[in-house]
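Comment thread on ticket #2218

A.B. wrote:
> Attaching the input chain for the structure job we discussed in standup.
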Amino acid sequence: MPAFKWSDKKKPNYRWLVYGIAGVGKTTLSKYLKGKTYLLSLDKSFERVKFWQGNDDIWVLDPDNPIEDLSDFYNFFKPSDYDNLVIDNISSLQKLFFVEKAKGTKTGLANKISDYNEWNTYLIRFIASVFKWNIDILVTAWEAQNNVTDPSGQAFMQYGPDIRDNPRDYLMGSCDVVARMIQKPQSGERGLIMQGSIDTYAKNRLDDRPGCKAEDFFKFKKTDLEKAVDKVKEKK
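C.D. wrote:
> Ran it. Output below, let me know if you need it in another format.
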């Protein structure tokens, strides 16, 4: 791979990871993306979302052959035809992966230890390959409470994406924003937590907002990266 040059950088590509309970509005959030969007649906939740009804820019994963079907999608999809890709929902893919792998065991129900290591490698490789595309990407996942131990040895429970540890940490580290989506029970208003705390994993390296309403999630200021690219191009 040739040395990196800022002058060759066309524009930053953004990576968002949003997690939350089922039905909180993660798939609906994609309607606020700017430009032309393609949906890779891993759980068919789009069928109840008005924004996606009648839209054919959708790949629905085959639950009976998820591994082979995801490979077919990778070869089929042309990122140059779109501005955004939505990968909805990684947690569902994880469950389908283990169901598929269990089919090869004696009972057809149990997973081998090697399946878990294979999943770690499989998801990391998929994310690394997809994140190379010159396109903005939104990834969604269900939420789970995970055991976390801080440097002092204190253990606590923290909300985060429902994905196994190794690929989860790789995915979170590769994203510009990791946000937990929540809904106010009284008003039904949906919002996103974008600042981490002891009980919620979140991060935001695009701007200084600790949180926002769902409709404002993709409305961030011009980032330092965009400014750096513009500055280099002005000198050319």
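A.B. wrote:
> Thanks. Noting for the ticket: The chain has a mean pLDDT of 89.
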